[in-house]
Amino acid sequence: MRTALLLLVSVSVTACGVKRVPDSIIEKLPYEARIDLLEAENDLAIAVDKLDETRNEVTRTRDQIRRAKDRLSGANGEVGSAADSTSKEVARLAVVEAEARLDYLKARQGVNVEEEKLAEIALTCAVARFEQSKLETARKKKIEGSEALDPAAFEAQVKSCDEKYAAERTEAKNIGTQAEAIKNKWEESRTALAKKTFDARASPYVE
């Protein structure tokens, strides 16, 4: 796990442009000094897991959107084939519910994508903190080569990343508020369909 994580860190550092402490310096750290890095390393592992979760949620919701489109198509077909006025009314309510469901799922996917973006930034911040911890530990142990690295630069990249995360978090909150309003509209249409069909046509679960 640790080896794979450190490999991922190397890839992430390269991808996100985080200033890093050379491996040649870290390799000189005594074992007891590496324990000082565990907290930052654990935070990094949590950030990696969070990013995986958000990406999985994007995939799950994409599948739900596909099924919701099929549901809407089926509901539209029922309107044309309804044999009487009551059936036609139910079919029309089903169309409204299916359309609202699809709108909500699309809105929720917008939230998911934003959460994925946040998780990516959080991972970058975790990498930056990990690198800062490595430098602090190396300088504390007076490891050769660490004196040439500027602590202020490592501190600045953490601060910059935190500011970027905070700004993106505000955007995510706005998107979430919009999605919640769309969800309320879907729930209203689901309630109307449930009343007309005695709950038989309005699952409380997003499919």
Describe the 3D structure:
By secondary structure, the chain is mainly α. The chain has a single domain, classed as Arfaptin homology (AH) domain/BAR domain (Substrate Binding Domain Of Dnak, Chain:A, Domain 2), CATH 1.20.1270. The protein is built from 6 helices and no strands. Helix 5 packs antiparallel against helix 6. The longest helix is centred in the middle third of the chain and has 56 residues. The model has no long low-confidence stretch (mean pLDDT 88).
Quick structural overview:
The protein is mostly helical.
End-to-end gap: 35 Å
Helix content: over 70%
Cα Rg: 25 Å
Number of helices: 6
Uncertain runs with pLDDT below 50, 5 residues or more?
A: none
Total DSSP E strands:
0
The name of the CATH superfamily reads Arfaptin homology (AH) domain/BAR domain
Task: Indicate the mean pLDDT.
Answer: 88
- Derived from helix and strand composition plus strand pairing, the structural class reads mainly alpha
**What kind of sheet is the major sheet?**
none
**How many structural domains?**
1
CATH topology name: Substrate Binding Domain Of Dnak, Chain:A, Domain 2
Can you tell me the CATH class? Mainly Alpha
The general outline is: rod-shaped
Strand-helix topology:
Blueprint: H1 2-16, H2 23-26, H3 31-34, H4 38-81, H5 85-140, H6 151-197
Jot down its keywords.
single chain, mainly alpha, Substrate Binding Domain Of Dnak, Chain:A, Domain 2, rod-shaped
